[in-house]
Design a protein that fits this description.
The model has no long low-confidence stretch (mean pLDDT 93). It is globular and about 45 Å long. 87% of the residues lie in helices and 0% in strands. The chain contains 6 helices and no strands. By secondary structure, the chain is mostly helical. The N and C termini lie far apart (52 Å).
Length: 178
């Protein structure tokens, strides 16, 4: 097991964006499978949906989150209580609302929604999901930014996001009754 951890650490240093993209893609796909199997209790699993969620993690969530954390570290700093509070405020007031909007939009587009349906879905889902975000993520990010070195912050967030991704997958798959 220790050799796997050392390999992971070497790869993370050598290819930080790629490794964190793979982590995010894997954990987002897993979150979708948990939603389908345990929450929705689907008999016929939608593997296309799982691939779409994994792709969002690989191409968007992993790279964007890693880049964002690097920007916070570069411009705000990496140590100290005030620095952590500034990072959490920037993360939750700037990044989270924008990232959720992008995430929900991409999911809606991949679900085949046209512009009007996408707009309606966003109006119906975005406020509740953003409120749920604020119940969980500020505390996670306080811990993450205070205790976790930059290279492991995406892993921590994506590990917690396994449950969050399950919630997002479930919420965005519900057919709203008009």
């Amino acid at each position: 097991m220790q050799s796997v951890i050392k390999l992971y650490q070497r790869l993370l240093i050598k290819y930080p964006l790629r490794i964190q993209a793979v982590q995010a893609g894997t954990l987002m796909a897993l979150g979708d499978q948990i939603a389908q199997n345990l929450v929705e209790r689907k008999k016929d699993l939608d593997y296309i949906r799982t691939i779409q969620f994994g792709s969002i993690g690989f191409f968007i969530a992993g790279p964007v989150t890693r880049t964002w954390y690097g920007i916070l570290d570069r411009y705000i700093g990496s140590k100290g209580g005030t620095v952590v509070l500034k990072k959490v405020c920037c993360d939750q007031l700037l990044f989270a609302p924008a990232f959720l909007l992008v995430l929900l939009s991409v999911i809606g587009i991949l679900q085949g929604n046209d512009t009007q349906n996408l707009k309606t879905k966003l109006q119906n889902e975005y406020p509740d999901i953003l409120k749920s975000n604020y119940k969980i993520w500020p505390m996670v990010q306080l811990f993450n930014f205070y205790f976790i070195p930059l290279q492991y912050q995406v892993l921590i967030v994506q590990s917690v996001a396994l449950l969050w991704n399950t919630y997002i997958s479930y919420r965005t798959s519900i057919k709203k009754q008009e």
